[in-house]
Amino acid sequence: MEPTQSPEPRNNSRILLIAALFLVLLGINGVLYWMNRQKSAENEQLTTQVAEKDDRLKTQISEYEKLKADFERQSQEVQSMGLSNDSLEAKIASINADLLKLRSFKSSSFSVAEQRRFKVRAQNLESQLRKKDDEIAQLKADNEALYTEATTLKERQNKLTDTITTIARSNQELTEKVAVASRLQAENIRVGVVNARNKEKDDDDNEFKAKRVEKIKISFNLGRNDVSPKETKQVMLRLIEPDGAALYNLSTGGGTFMIDGSEAFYTAKQDIVYDNTRQPVQFLYAKGAAYKVGLHTIELYEGGVMIGKTTFTLK
Q: Which residues cross the membrane (predicted)?
């Protein structure tokens, strides 16, 4: 009878097999754990990179939006000064195009080369912006200086105009005063009549019979006036009949002249060289027809201004 084999070796083999399997499984789990850790690290790194790209893209867009706002501000300032802003409008249009392209990027597609290109362009635009701000500041300073100078000149011009106006007014007033002061006066006006036989009659009451009058004689002196220039003076006589009409006949030396801007008839006139010696003047007027009965008026004028007046009556 054969001896019975012990089960211990078989059990040991089973235990060794199980232990080996356990170790294999433990190794596999370790490898899987390590691979998962690596994958997680890679995903985290990728997420970080995407977030960084996204931040850089947003920062770049924000920078271009600020550049656009600043160039628009410059355009408005230049336009408010009445200057051309075409170059600034062109820059704004270019920035709008860049913004449109930047907004079309996805974070993953915003490459390092693109980042560098847009960053360099933004730096150039920033430099141009600062330079333009300096130019605008200088223009504003120049405009302010010109405005101040123009205001000063305007004030001087206004003062000069006021001075000229004052001088002109003073001259006008002086001229008017001189004109008034230089007016002549007819003194000692006397009226006489001459009949058909050439006999002259005077009357202190200046009353005469109408049927005997052939001519009217008016005599007076030109009063002294040291202001009036010694020159030829034109003296007009108006003989006004009782009905208020002035005798006027071209054939006997009558005509028209201006009194206070209105046309009036004169009966006769004389050109007299005034010498400031109270020189005598005489008018002898023949109507050539019967004189009207009633109160007649004699008016004497020089330079359009009345220098004497009297009346006489024909009965």
A: 15-35
| Residue 4: C-alpha distances to residues 1, 7, 8, 11, 14 (Å) | 9, 9, 12, 16, 20
d(CA 283, CA 267): 10
Phi then psi for residue 11, to 5 deg, are -65, -40
Query: How many C-beta atoms surround the C-beta of residue 13 within 10 A?
Result: 10
β-partners of residue 235 are: 270, 302
Euclidean distance between CA atoms 58 and 47, whole angstroms = 16
CB atoms within 10 A of CB 182: 13
The DSSP bridge partners found for residue 283 are: 218
| HEC secondary structure over 74-132 | HHHHHHHCCCCCHHHHHHHHHHHHHHHHHHHCCHHHCCHHHHHHHHHHHHHHHHHHHHH
User: What does the alpha-carbon distance between residue 308 and residue 223 come to, in Å, rounded to a whole number?
Assistant: 11
Q: What one-letter code names the amino acid at 92?
A: I
Question: pLDDT confidence of 108, banded at 50, 70, 90?
Answer: low
Cβ-in-10-Å burial (0-12, 13-18, 19+) of 267 comes to buried
Nearest by Cα to 202 from 213, 193, 211:
193
Q: So where are the chain's domains? A: 32-181, 186-314
pLDDT tens-place string over residues 206-218: 999 998 899 999 9
CB-based contact 293:315 (threshold 8 Å): yes
Average pLDDT along the chain: 85
